[in-house]
Amino acid sequence: MREDLKSVDPAAQVLLKVAEKKKILTSFERAEKLKPCPIGHEGACCKVCHMGPCRLVGKEDEAAGVCGATLPVVTARNFARMVAAGTAAHSDHARDLANTLLAVARGEAKDFQIKDVRKLNRVAGYLGINVEGKSVNKVAEDVALKFLEQFGQQRGELAYLSRAPKKRQEIWKKLGIAPRAIDRECVEMLHRTAMGVDQEPNNIMLGALRTSLADGWGGSMMGTDISDILFGTPKPLKTKASLDVFKEDHVNLVVHGHEPSFAEMLVQAQEDPEMVAYAKSKGAKGVNLVGMCCTANEILMRHGIPTAGGFLQQELGILTGMVEAMVVDVQCIMPAISQLSKQYHTKIVTTTAKGKMIDAEHVEYDDHHAMDIAKKVVRLAIDNFQNRKKESVSPAGIKAADVIAGFSDEYIEYMQGGRYRGSYRPLNDAIISGRIRGIVGLAGCNNPRISQDSIHNFLTREFIKNDVLVVQTGCSAMASAKAGYMTPENALENAGQGLREVCEAIGIPPVLHLGSCVDNSRILTIASNIANEGGLGDDIGGLPAVGIAPEWMSEKAIAIGTYFAASGVPVIFGAGSPVKASKTLRDIMENKWWEMMNAAFYFEEDPGKMLELALKMIDAAREKLKIRKYEPGRFGTERVLMDMAARRGGTFATPHGVDV
Ligand code: NFS
C-alpha cells in the first residue's frame, strides 16, 4: 500500500501532476490545507440549536452542552441525522424513479419503455399486486402507485420488509425498528434529534436503525428495482474504466451524479444518427459518452458505457481539457467543478431544480420530454467542441483497464444453474465446503484524506487471496474496475485456490461489480437468498459476511452501513469515526448491537486491522454455523471448467440467451 501517494490510480497521478504544474488546487490539496475540526470530526459538536454550537470536550461522556445534553446524546443525534440525510438522498432518488415509472405506465413519458417485464411481475408479487389479466402498463401503474404510497403511508410497515428472512423480520419487530414509511422515518428522526426531544442514546440509535432500514429495504431497494424494470436488469458485459476513456477526436460528454433516467436518454441520444451527423459537421468523429460516480455505474452495468471513475475523479476529468460538457444531477457533485471549469472550455450543465450551481448552465430535465432535452444537452456539448484548446489538453496516457461488470442478483442466481434451475445452492455449498471462506461487500466512497483507492485495492487483493468473494458497489467498485481486478483472469492470477476454482467453474471474476450505491440493496437480496437457500442458518445475521467502507465520506455511506448492521451484516468503516468522542456510543454500536441484532458497526482506520477484523468475524461465523473450518490452500487446481478463449473473450451466457 502506498499511503504516501495522493492516489494509487496511475492516471489520477498524471492528472494531479498537471494540476500542480498549472497551480490548480483540487480537493486533494484542499484536504491537506484544510484540516478537519477535531471536535466535529469525532461527533462532539452540537449545533441543533443556537445556544451553541456547543463543543463537548474534556470529560468524555460527562461533558454536556448549555441545555445539559451529554456527549452520548449529542454524538447519537449527530449520527442519526447523518442516517436520516443518507436515507433521504437514496429515497428521493427512488421517488423520482417511481414517478417516472408512473408516467411511463400512463403513456406520458413516451421516450421510455418497460424493459424488463419479468422483473416488473416479480416486483408486483413482492408488493402483493395481482397481475392476472392486466396489461403490462396497468401492472406498472399499480406498482408505481404502491411504491409512491410507501413514502407517506400512515399505517403498516414497508412492503419490502417481507423480502427479508422471517427471523430477521422478527428481530425488527421485537426491537420495534420495522420502518413504517420512508418519509415518516426521516421526518421523525429529524424531530427526535432536535433540541429537547429524544435524550436517551440507545433510543436515538434505535431510531437511526429504523430509519436506515427505510433506506435499505425501502428507497434503495425500490431505486434498484425500478431502474431494472425501466432500463433493464444488468447482465455481464465488458467495458473500460479510467480517466483515459476520453477521445481526442470525439466530443466528450460526461454524465455525473446518481439518477439514471436522464443518463439513459443520453445513451440513446449520443448514438442518434442526427446527433452523430451534427458532431461530424463540427469536426468531431462522434460523441463519446462517459460516466462518472454512480450514474456511471448505472449505465456501465446496463450499456457498457465506459467510466472515468468515482467521486475523486470529477476535477481530474476536467483537468484533461478534453471534456466538452459535464452533465450533473444530484449527490456527490463537488461545487469546485463549476469554478474549475472556468479555467477550461468545459461546460457544467445542471439538470434538476433540486441542484443548481453558480456558473453552470441549467437545462432542466423532465421525463415527459426526455429525448428532446437529452438532444439539447448533446448539441450543447457538440457546439463546444470547437472551443477545446489544444494547448490545454493533457490526456492521462495510461491504458484503461478492462472491466466485466453487470452482476445483478438475478444474474448471480442465473449463473448458478440457468434460467429454470437458477439457485444459490452452488454458492452456499462452496461456502460450506470452505472453497469460499466468506463474502465481503466492499462499498462506499473515496475521501481525499486517504490515498485514493489505496485501501479499497489493498483489501480487495487480500480478500481474494484469502478465498473471500468480493462484491462491490459505488466508488469502491470503480477502484477495482480501474485497477483491472474485475476480470476473470484476475481469479486465475491472484485468487486463493478455493475461490479460483469456484470462479473458473462458473466463469466469473473473483470481484463482482454489483452496481451503484443504491444497488447495495442487491447485497441484501443476495444475503437473503443465501439464508433462504439453507445450510447456512436461517438469517442474514450469522452468515460469514462483512460489509466494509474503508474510504467513506458521505452521509449516504453511514445510512448504508447502518442498514447493513440492522440487517445482520457486521460493518467496518475506515476514514475516522464520527462517534469516536463517546464511549457509550462506541459500546452501543460495537457490543450492544451484537446482542440485539447479531451484527455491529466498527470504525477502524488501519487497513491491516480492518482485514484482520473482517477475517476474524468471517471465521467466527463459520465456527458458529458449524461448517468446515477454513484452511488456506486446502483446494488444488485440478478442475478448469471454462476454457481460456472464453475467459479472455469475456464470454458469458445471459439470462436472455445472448452471449456478451
Ligand atoms: Ni455512494 Fe455514489 Fe461515491 Fe460515496 Fe458518492 S458516488 S452514492 S456516496 S462518493 S460511493
How would you describe this structure to a colleague?
The structure is a single chain. This protein has 660 residues and is of the alpha/beta class. The protein folds into three domains: 45-231, Up-down Bundle (Substrate Binding Domain Of Dnak, Chain:A, Domain 2); 243-392, Rossmann fold, CATH 3.40.50.2030; 403-645, Rossmann fold (3-Layer(aba) Sandwich). The strands form four sheets. It has a six-stranded parallel beta sheet with strand order 12-11-10-13-14-15, with helices on both faces. Strands 5-4-6-7-8 form a five-stranded parallel beta sheet. Strand 1 and strand 2 form a beta hairpin. Helix 5 crosses helix 6, helix 8 runs antiparallel to helix 9 (201-231) and helix 9 crosses helix 23. Bound molecules: FE(4)-NI(1)-S(5) cluster (NFS). FE(4)-NI(1)-S(5) cluster is lined by residues 258, 293-294, 310-311, 331-332, 444-445, 474-475, 517, 554, 556-557.
**Helix-residue proportion:** 40-55%
CATH architecture of the largest domain: 3-Layer(aba) Sandwich
Give, in spatial order, the strands making up the sheet with the most strands: 12-11-10-13-14-15
CATH C-level name of the largest domain: Alpha Beta
Strand count, sense and barrel status of the largest sheet are: 6 strands, parallel
Distinct bound molecules: FE(4)-NI(1)-S(5) cluster
In the CATH hierarchy, the third-tier topology of the largest domain is known as: Rossmann fold
Gap between N and C termini: 35 Å
The overall pLDDT average reads: 93
